[in-house]
Write a structure and sequence with these properties.
Oligomer: single chain
Mean pLDDT: 93
Largest sheet: none
Distance between the termini: 17 Å
Strand content: under 5%
Low-confidence stretches: none
Structural class: mainly alpha
Length: 141
């Protein structure tokens, strides 16, 4: 059955994407926020810039775009409140990423201060983290 081909990968990609986001929120960002700007050693903005370059790789992009694609496929092939909700959450998380996080990353890359970018970036990041995790759970039920 076609649903067997999209429901497991939808739950898996959404869960993995949410896990990447959650690990970043729980470990990386708190560490970056503890380093005072101007302190000896790497500047948190420079570290974040390096992370933003390193993350753009096929494995991450497969999760970023695969989670919403599989969720939409699941909703089309087997529409239900949970599959449609999962698709809305996964697509919504991608929209937040492209509309908020990527432009803030671009501002940081352009030289804007980490302190000015991190607050709005983190708020949007937590929304997309919740969307990915909840979307994975919804399609897995």
């Amino acid at each position: 059955m076609l649903t067997d081909l999209v429901f497991p990968p939808s739950a898996l990609t959404g869960g993995l994407l949410g896990g990447v986001y959650l690990a970043f929120d729980l470990a990386v960002l708190p560490a970056l926020r503890r380093v005072p700007v101007g302190a000896p050693g790497p500047d948190p903005g420079d570290t974040m810039r390096a992370i933003n370059v390193a993350i753009v790789r096929p494995s991450f992009l497969a999760l970023l775009f695969g989670a919403p694609a599989f969720a939409v496929a699941a909703a089309v092939l087997a529409p239900s409140p949970l599959s449609i909700g999962s698709a809305a959450l996964q697509v919504g998380g991608l929209v937040v990423t492209m509309a908020v996080n990527v432009p803030l990353n671009d501002r940081l890359a352009g030289g804007e201060s980490f302190d000015r970018v991190v607050g709005p970036w983190l708020r949007a990041h937590r929304i997309r983290t919740a969307a990915a995790v909840l979307g994975a759970v919804a399609v897995g039920l």
